[in-house]
Amino acid sequence: MKALSPEEARSVLEAAREDDDLEALWTVALTTGLRQGELLALRWPEVELERGTLRVVASLVRLAGQEPQLAEPKSQRSRRQVELSAGAVDSLRRHRATAIEAALKAGRPYDRAGFVFRRTDERPLSVTTTWKRWRRILAAAHVPPMPFHSARHSAATLLLGRGVHPKIVSEMLGHSTVAITLDVYSHVTPAMNREAARVMDELFA
């Protein structure tokens, strides 16, 4: 399992802001930990920018020899509401404004109920395109290559490393139990244990 360091994650988002029309995708991925299928299945009605939230209600799955299709989330816990950071909200606003402007210039309407990350024919962004563009933005940010799923691992690792409660991280990721989160991210727990010891020193010094 690979995860970006805080410095690498910042470098990726800085590079994306400079020149990448998928900046919002990378920002949401790194700040929410959504699975790739959940990101690509996201539609605008499920994103509430005023409230700073999004709802995960579907996932895009790709079956051999077939067109990608929407499916139910992996589990009941996967169907969830996720809080968005201010940076993610801003990037989504810019993404929508740019997409609307591009559609108008092309002489076609912009479907406000459609996919957030889409192709010009209104279909969701493909998994293959996402992989290629992810590798490109990592290279632009001078970050070693790693799978797109690393964005999900990075979000969880960064939050746990900063002391966010595992229960909160588990709900954000859509894990069925907190035990799964603690098991998958056990490499982060030593730092959490050290922080707990530091707090005790402060209390009883």
Task: Describe what you observe in this structure.
The strands form 2 sheets. Strands 1-2-5 form a 3-stranded antiparallel β-sheet, with no helix packed on it. A two-stranded antiparallel ribbon has the order 3-4. 34% of the residues are buried. The chain is mainly alpha-helical. The chain is globular, with a radius of gyration of 18 Å. Helices cover 52% and strands 8% of the residues. The longest helix has 20 residues, at 86-105. The model has no long low-confidence stretch (mean pLDDT 92). It has a single domain (6-204), classed as hpI Integrase, Chain A, CATH 1.10.443.10. Strand 1 (47-48) and strand 2 form a beta hairpin. The chain has 9 helices and 5 strands, in the order H-H-H-E-E-E-E-E-H-H-H-H-H-H. Helix 1 runs antiparallel to helix 2.
